[in-house]
Design a protein that fits this description.
- The protein is mainly α.
- The chain has helices at residues 18-23, 32-62, 69-102, 112-133.
- The chain has four helices and no strands.
- Its main location: membrane.
Length: 134
Amino acid sequence: MTNREQPASAPVPPSRGKIAERLLPGGEEPDPRFTLANERTFLAWIRTSLALLAGGIAIEAFTSDLFLEPVRKGLAVVLLLLGMLLSAGSAVRWLRVERSMRNKAPLPLPLIVPLLAAAGALAAAVVLIFILWR
């Protein structure tokens, strides 16, 4: 049989790369609009994470006359840790949502939301108490 006599085969889809295949195994490529929306959500979480990091740095750098040192350091550490956790959690969330879309499974619950809400409320309560106390 020569090359001219062989039946035409279906086109082979381009490879996404080894990392993409390891992180996103199986399933079907979702509509690009959904993937891009997932990416925009990830970037919004990252912006929030950067704001928390900036807040932690600002608390430590500019509020020495407002807070006692242990409270100031504690509040700054809470904000910095929350920013770090949110950054890592947003990457995990992006990956879980992407896998769910590819496998046509229900979207996972955003477990990072209650953590962010609780820690943000705690930090706000500490600031409010010390502002009212002074």
